[in-house]
Amino acid sequence: MLCRSAIKPVFIGLGAAAVLAAGGASAIAAEAASPELTITVDAQKQSEPGKPISVTATVATSEDTASAVHISEVKLTSGTTGVDPKVIQGCDFEKTLCDFGEVNTTNETATSVVDVSGKFDAPVTVTVTMTVTGNFGEEPSEATSEPVALTFNPVKADPPTETPTDPPTTTPPPTSKPTKKPTKKPTSRTPSKPSPTPTKSAAASGSGGGGSSSSGSGSSSSGSGGGYVPPSPNSSFDPRNPQVALPPIQAPNPSVAPSPVPGSGTPQSRLQGNKAPVAQDVTFERMASTQIAWLAALLVAFSLLLTQLRLGRRRVPAGAAAKRPKGTHRRPRRGMFGK
């Protein structure tokens, strides 16, 4: 067994160790409980060709409330030369800062728009980093977001559209030669020659019979012969050739005549049912209307002349008018009640 003098130091050592352990734990807890700001950046990873990208920053506190909270820096970096990334709207620390005022554990958001100026043919990557600053009482606090990569795609020019060109149309040369119209030579008709000896007829035989009766016995020999001998012409008689030279006749042309074009032959008239009058008909109508107007004017003038002549007759002297019985100038009434 241990003695009491040895046990007392052990208890004292254990108590001191417990006190030291409790103090260290409270110090660690006090350090972990200090409030701080947090910031998160969210954005679309790639943009459409030629368009900017919107970036959203979310700010909050771990605990307690911070005052004068604002975006103090927006850092844009790009590894491509010849391009200039910049904030065109939102939290631009050079122009306007995103001032949140007082921020607690509730998330506060602010949206910025990032664009790239310059000409580029390949996609451009831009890294965005934001820093937020605020105060917890009198102690300042600051937080920086994780870098976010943005990819900007270039605008591709549309290839020029080729207009289809049709090959020139070539007309083949005519292969068929024009056919010649067949022509026939005129044929002259030659009449047949008349027979030199006339044919026998009943009149000739009768005349021969009559001659036999007058000659008596000699007629029997002549009648039995039966042949008629024509009289020979005189020496002064010159017989003409009965052949007559006919004029040459042109052979018929087998080609078909072209069909007449309507309206190209005889001029149209009203009798043919045409809708538009011919120029001759229009001229005739104008002349007729002019003559009718002149005749009407002459008739009116003649009527006015007769009226003037009738009104301009010499009036009867007053003495002659007094000699006439009263009322003779009036037309007497006729009928049942007439005088």
From TrEMBL:
Keyword Membrane: yes
Region (Disordered): 152-274, 317-339
Signal peptide: 1-21
Bias type Basic residues, positions: 178-187, 323-339
Compositional bias per record (Pro residues), positions renumbered to this chain: 161-176, 249-261
Biased composition (Low complexity): 188-205
Residues annotated as transmembrane: 292-309
Keywords of the record: Membrane, Signal, Transmembrane, Transmembrane helix
Name of the molecule in the record: Neocarzinostatin family protein
Biological source species: Actinomadura meyerae
